[in-house]
Amino acid sequence: MIIQLCGLSGAGKTTIATNVKQKAAAFGTPIEIIDGDNYREFLCKDLGFSKEDRCENIRRLGFVASRLSCHGVICIISAINPYDAVRNELTAAYEHVRTVYIDCPVNELIARDTKGLYKRALLPEGHPDRLTNLTGINDPFEAPRNPDLHLRTDKKSISTCVNELFGFIITSAARKNNSSLRVASV
Ligand SMILES: Nc1ncnc2c1ncn2[C@@H]1O[C@H](COP(=O)(O)OS(=O)(=O)O)[C@@H](OP(=O)(O)O)[C@H]1O
Ligand SMILES: Nc1ncnc2c1ncn2[C@@H]1O[C@H](COP(=O)(O)OP(=O)(O)O)[C@@H](O)[C@H]1O
């Protein structure tokens, strides 16, 4: 199974994915987190933040996830993943892909600003440190219309979000296994 997260920088993707991984490990269920930030240092080092590069980034993360998930590893793709088209591409290309929207309003993210990116994007035009393509400020984010799970991280605590995603994964995995068993017994 592949869980593709999407959500703005600072929305809580890494925090939730890491906690879900820990919780699952305690139950003996391995989860691999395929994190955009992390892969951009290695496999996706050549990519920037244009629409083409962001889509290519997601395609590569999706490919890695597909290789692991066909050996039974549950994968969480933790990336901003801002475009509908490439999210749909992954859903169509691979089996058992679920889309989870980690949602937080921009005003709250500007207040959190854990990496200082929002401050830089909001600098006046022409400022040498201004970030010109930060998702949600001056670059698009296409909110998924029908995500399989929608978590509002400004309204729910970290532990509630973690429990909801964990529960969702367990339920989806059970459904997937039941349907494989039905197919196998036909
Ligand atoms: N311009 C711009 N826009 C968005 N994000 C930026 C940008 N510049 C750097 N960063 C940092 O890169 C992380 C996002 O990488 P992703 O691979 O998740 O992005 S994408 O899915 O390809 O859109 C993102 O990580 P997260 O904060 O964990 O989301 C940022 O730390
Ligand atoms: N309900 C919540 N879920 C996840 N993170 C939250 C929540 N409420 C507050 N936060 C905080 O928001 C920040 C999210 O950062 P991070 O997980 O790195 O986001 P992202 O990976 O989406 O960029 C962390 O400082 C975290 O403690």
UniProtKB/TrEMBL annotation:
Pathway noted in the entry: Sulfur metabolism; hydrogen sulfide biosynthesis; sulfite from sulfate: step 2/3
Keywords on record: ATP-binding, Kinase, Nucleotide-binding, Transferase
Enzyme Commission number(s): 2.7.1.25
Reactions it catalyzes: adenosine 5'-phosphosulfate + ATP = 3'-phosphoadenylyl sulfate + ADP + H(+)
Group of enzyme by EC: transferase
Keyword Glycoprotein found: no
Gene Ontology molecular functions: adenylylsulfate kinase activity; ATP binding; sulfate adenylyltransferase (ATP) activity
One Gene Ontology biological process: sulfate assimilation, phosphoadenylyl sulfate reduction by phosphoadenylyl-sulfate reductase (thioredoxin)
GO cellular component, one term: cytoplasm
Kinase listed as a keyword: yes
Domain APS kinase stretches: 2-151
Family, as annotated: Belongs to the APS kinase family.
Function: Catalyzes the synthesis of activated sulfate.
Protein name in UniProt: Adenylyl-sulfate kinase
Organism: Chitinophaga tropicalis
